[in-house]
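Morning run. Coffee first, then this:
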Amino acid sequence: MGNRVDVVMVTHRSAGYVHLSLPRVLETLGPDDRVWLWHNGDDEATLEAIRPYRADERIAQFHHSRDNVRLRPPTNWLWDGSDARFVAKVDDDCLVSPGWLDLFVAAHDDNPGFGVVGSWRHPDEEFRPDVAAAKIQEFNGGHSLMRNHWVQGSGYVMPRAVVTAHGLLGPQESFSSYCVRLARAGRVNGYYFPFVREEHMDDPRSAHTLIHDDRALLDRMPLSAAANGVTTVEQWTAQLERSALLLQTAPLDLRTYSGWRRRARSLRRRVRTATGRPRRW
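And here it is:
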């Protein structure tokens, strides 16, 4: 019988975090769960930090890419090679909550129509119950989700049967776009509610953050920050705040994410960039 959950963690220049994030993931595994570890680049400090764990029996696979190939190839490496019932991913700068795998697997088992169930990484003060209430729904087995057609690419659990049915990430496809593709096919995605927290250590408000000033931000430069032209801690924090609100207000009408509505949103983003205003994630 195969594993229950295979979890991929991608590391890159993360020695300051991975000594916390990798042990935390390992602590949350059940007896039939494993971690697939992929390292991007040649940062010796990170390689040294993960070296003691490579012999751990809970590490199913290790791959070292000399090039920083970002996130798509490692994700497809897991999805294509795993024979587990579920696949998951945790970023090297994130701390998952104890029990997250057991809870999310139970939610999937009770609701075969679920696609991707995710953790929540935003501070309590950014939850707007008056806004989010319309998106919070109850499902079989006493489980609830704050539905959204996409979730973040860390701290999630997805049935491997979804990959069998819908394929791998496309050459230019983001995880968010993949989630929307699943939603169009009838799958229900969202954040488990009450929220299961995932601490994002690259959030300047995290107790474990390494981003204490603008220089540190430029040195680390999270992918989402780089994609949105962020250059200061203030801008990065503001982007994270907007992201939390967006997830609680994003419409569930799938027509919003295709056709003329999608083109209109793209145009608005380009206008904001041209006028020097920060793009919204």
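Confidence is low (pLDDT under 50) at residues 270-281. Good start to the day.
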